Amino acid sequence: MTAxxxxxxxxxxxxxxxLGPSMRYLTMLGSILLLMLTGVVMALAASNPVSVGxxxxxxxxxxxxxxxxxxxxxxxxxxxxxxxxxxxRIAPLLLAGACLGLVLVxxxxxxxxxxxxxxxxxxxxxxxxxxxxxxxxxxxxxFLDQRRYFLDRIDRVTLPVLASIAVPCVLIAHQQRDLGTxxxxxxxxxxxxxxxGVPFRHLGLLLTAGLGxxxxxxxxxxxxxxxIIGFFSPTENSLGDGYQVTQGLASLSNGGFxxxxxxxxxxxxxxxxxxxxxxxxxxxxxxxxxVGAVAVLILLATIVLTGFRTAQIAPDVFGxxxxxxxxxxxxxxxxxxxxxVLGLCIITGVTLPFVSSGGTSLIVNAAAAGxxxxxxxxxx
Length: 380
Description:
single chain, mainly alpha
């Protein structure tokens, strides 16, 4: 069923909607703000000892995250108040700017942990690959809407989409050594094309090309092969490539039902690497316990489910595709992050939306959430 068919069907079924547009909007907004607040608390609880060791101040990392959250809230309010349709006019500029940022990273990027993914702008660092996600979703929604009557034409839709995502994916996966983000970008494109109604045989072509390229890149780098080995046998490599996931699972187990209490766990003492970013859910599970972890999962699920419902009843096809793309984006990022923490996926360094520390990721997620909220507010 195409996006336009979904749109017409949803418009006919709005009288059966048990959760009205206003309640859906408020539920989504409340979930986002609660997750941001949880992220601030977890950043304080997880980064104190590390901050003392690095900067001599217990609040340096927390202060950075608090600034990012504040900026994220302002960006959220800005995109909520701006009609989502106005974004399609600047979609080509967004995508061109994102690709330019990826090229600048290649030329002048800041290296950290063996990867070159950031532009050092003095007061803060910028990660163009995160901006690329938003630019891709807006551009692809506009493109698929314009060509919704030619979805079965491989030359009019599938090949142009393949060309448009190949360039940023190659720059991100090969040059920046960030295969996880490249895989998410490709998966978002596939999800949006499926929502629009592109034939499965065309999607299979893109999926085959993506899986083949991803497998080659995964096996070509020794550190990626190590992550694969650590994923399949974490206990046998608990002091090597399986160390991070083993310690993350130990933190979750240590939390029990009620948790150890704020700043009372062992994850923040360096036992779990990247405790305030990639593995923040391990800190949540340890310090807030099973109850807190489930609460975070419910909030994340609420955003995704209300996002998909918003895609069904959006005012137009562009809004439907835009909401679907953002919802797929959040769903994939949540799945990959939690899968890495729980040992269900290979660790990729993807952050948990609205909870993990990370300036560019948090602010871009807030911008995307604001777009989703604007569509929800205008849905009748």
